Amino acid sequence: MRRQIVIGNWKMNGDSRSNRELLDGLTNAWTGVHQSEVAVCVPYPYIAMAADALDNSNIGLGAQDVSQNDNGAYTGDVSVSMLTDFGCRYVLVGHSERREYHRESSELVARKFKKAYENGLIPVLCVGETLEEREADKTFDVVGGQLHKVVNLCGLDGLAKGIVAYEPVWAIGTGKSATPQMAQDVHSYIREVLGPEGDQIRILYGGSVKPDTAEDLFKQKDIDGALVGGASLKAEDFVAICRAAE
Ligand code: PGA
Q1: Where residue 232 sits, what CATH number does that domain have?
Q2: Which domain does 195 fall in, by range?
Q3: Residue 95 is among the residues annotated as catalytic for this protein
């Protein structure tokens, strides 16, 4: 049985005051025991604050990126050990915004993925096609190619130590979510690619998930939760999505 998981991705948003309010809103609303897992990936400067606020809650903490290197002369980078030192359990790798704005290649993403799971973090591997690629009927090729780079470096058993998030680039931040069927088709393809490990690995959908679209997405057989950007910035909306996963 795969446990559903909803992960918030705050991206580069908020300040001390608003982020504190958001954390308070989440911890006040998400109390008690739940079937599904919940986590938030916050910007680096707020990790210590979030670790403190989420301590004793059932909301996990994550970061949005990590270095492929251990430690040393890598100005501006943050290592896995720094993240675990502050209580992080998850880290996003290969988000399309990193692939696009920071030219992160699938090879680099694979190295980050490996470094994370070998050192105590659960990497969330983001994959997905652009609108152009979808229209050219290349969705499966693109997603398959992104997965293969990780499988080549880590093996299927390595990949199974993380989580996969299918995020069509055209659906991110656009308000244009994939339909549940479109998402399910790609999720089932991903599971097929993962072969024998495919049944265990959690595959999340991301891209304009909102409280009113979450439930139908979560009903799909191969969708094990969501990676939520915009709607994770409002405690009420994020918690409504988390409830839909129960
Ligand atoms: P969105 O972002 O929910 O705002 O579309 C999702 C993501 O980029 O992870």
Answers
A1: 3.20.20.70
A2: 5-244
A3: yes
